[in-house]
Design brief:
Strand content of chain A: 15-25%
Largest sheet of chain A: 6 strands, antiparallel
Order of helices and strands of chain B: EEEEEEE
Largest interface: A-B, 10 and 12 residues
Strand order of the largest sheet of chain B: 3-2-5-6
Radius of gyration of chain B: 13 Å
Number of strands of chain A: 9
Shape of chain B: elongated
Structural class of chain A: alpha+beta
Oligomer: heterodimer
């Protein structure tokens, strides 16, 4: 118990530290922007550099990191450090090849330098949704490949150990390209559970060319949801009740027995005569006649109504059966994507 | 006794705006924002910052001799 408390306290401290560091990075960015706007470029550069330093520790979102780099590049340009501005813009292009500085905020001398750097910096990136659920073969997992300038790339899916699974695309990317995967392997079967690498690689790797990018995909098959069986219909009685027939039979038999037995019980010593037996038998027979006369009869209208209900229910059952069979044939996949990273040369 | 204007040291004007705009000083274009330490003669000047689609910033400013005047909080409003 005490150990658990200590672990919890340490976790809270670590989480708290991360949050405050993230806030500090944002605050530094805000202060850096203010200093930039006030033309205090030395202060702005220092604040933005600090923000980037905190950023790597706190895990800034890429959009905020791009903002810091843009202001830093503009700051460096205006304080006469063009090379530093180029370096910051180069980082920005590598971070997100499609990013463009806001042309409302940054004047042409900044945006023109950015375009110059963008043209000179060949970068590719791949953007995927964090979680995708798809029915193998029917739906698509979509990845967007981005390029800072025209690039020839190959997009592949491989197992974590590098064993190829499928080539998704091979060709040029001018600005961006949507690549989709139907969840099947090259053999046409749904991908098994496991970790895969979605990799975008330049077709002609060069020292100054774009670096390959990859995203780890955790693929998990999920059993499909099947439909429940339809409830059985409430049917109408198809025959009349058996109760009245048995009541007639019972009444006849009891009355017949009473005719035979009651006089002997009421008047001791008197033997039953043949006439009493005859009357008793007649009463009993009348009970039998009543039984057969009132025996259950089929109710034709109800029989017809039930038949139509049964047919409809059977059709519903068949439809559910067919739908469930189709669902069971279709494998559902859940694809969870990790962060995009640079695929080092020689990595699997 | 006050020295004649031509003998006064110039002042320096820095201008910035959001969004960025074209800067005019006494009706003469001097470039886009930001403008840093623009040398101006001491005395009154008409400062104008304009951009298509936005209402211009138009003020008469007085720059003292040797003064470094910074006007960096200009926010151009959309028309």
């Amino acid at each position: 118990m005490a150990r658990a408390s200590v672990v919890l306290a340490v976790s809270l401290l670590v989480c708290g530290a991360r949050v405050s560091r993230a806030q500090s990075a944002s605050e530094l960015l805000g202060q850096g922007v203010q200093a930039y706007q006030a033309l205090q470029y030395d202060a702005a550069a220092a604040l933005l550099e600090q923000s980037l330093g905190r950023d790597s520790a706190a895990g800034f979102a890429d959009s905020l990191r791009a903002r810091v780099l843009t202001y830093l590049a503009a700051t460096e340009l205006f304080r006469g450090r063009r090379d530093s501005a180029v370096a910051a813009f180069r980082q920005l292009v590598l971070l997100n090849p499609r990013y463009r500085p806001d042309e409302l905020i940054f004047p042409p001398q900044v945006t023109n330098l950015f375009q110059e750097v963008r043209r000179a910096t060949r970068a590719i990136a791949v953007v995927v949704p964090p979680v995708t659920e798809l029915r193998a073969r029917l739906d698509r997992f979509k990845a967007r490949v981005l390029a800072s300038s025209l690039a020839d790339v190959t997009v592949t899916l491989a197992h974590e150990d590098g064993t190829p699974v499928l080539q998704l695309y091979s060709g040029p990317v001018a600005d961006s390209l949507l690549v989709s995967w139907d969840g099947l392997t090259a053999a046409g079967t749904p991908a098994d559970d496991g970790r895969y690498l979605l990799r975008v690689t330049p077709r002609s790797p060069a020292a100054d060319g774009p670096r390959a990018r990859q995203v780890v995909l955790d693929v998990k098959q999920q059993p499909p949801d099947t439909l429940p069986w339809p409830p059985t219909p409430a049917l109408l009685p198809e025959r009349t009740l058996t109760g009245p027939a048995f009541q007639s039979l019972a009444a006849g038999l009891v009355a017949g027995a009473a005719v035979v037995a009651l006089p002997s019980l009421m008047a001791q010593g008197k033997d039953a005569t043949g006439a009493r037996f005859a009357v008793g038998a007649a009463v009993g027979v009348s009970g039998l006649v009543g039984f057969f006369a009132r025996k259950p009869r089929p109710l034709d209208a109800n029989v017809r109504a039930n038949a139509s209900q049964r047919d409809a229910w059977k059709r519903r059952v068949d439809a559910v059966k067919a739908e469930n069979a189709a669902r069971l044939r279709t494998t559902r996949l859940v694809v969870r994507a990790g962060p995009e990273t640079i695929a080092e040369r020689g990595s699997p | 006794m006050r020295r004649p204007a031509r003998d006064l040291e110039p002042g320096f004007l820095s201008v910035n705006a959001i969004p960025w705009g074209s800067v005019y000083l006494d009706g003469r274009p001097v470039g886009n924002t930001p403008q840093i330490d623009l040398q101006v003669a001491a005395g009154p000047h008409r400062l104008r910052v304009e951009r298509d689609g936005y209402r211009p910033y138009d003020r008469v400013i007085d720059v003292a001799s040797g003064q470094r005047l910074r006007i960096t909080d200009i926010a151009l409003a959309e028309r």
